[in-house]
Amino acid sequence: MPKRLGPDARNEALTTLTGWKLVEGREAIAKRFVFRDFSEAFGWMTRVALLAESMNHHPEWSNVYRTVEVTLSTHDAGGLTELDVKLARAMDAIVG
Amino acid sequence: MPKRLGPDARNEALTTLTGWKLVEGREAIAKRFVFRDFSEAFGWMTRVALLAESMNHHPEWSNVYRTVEVTLSTHDAGGLTELDVKLARAMDAIVG
Question: Which ipTM score applies to this complex?
Answer without folding.
Answer: 0.95
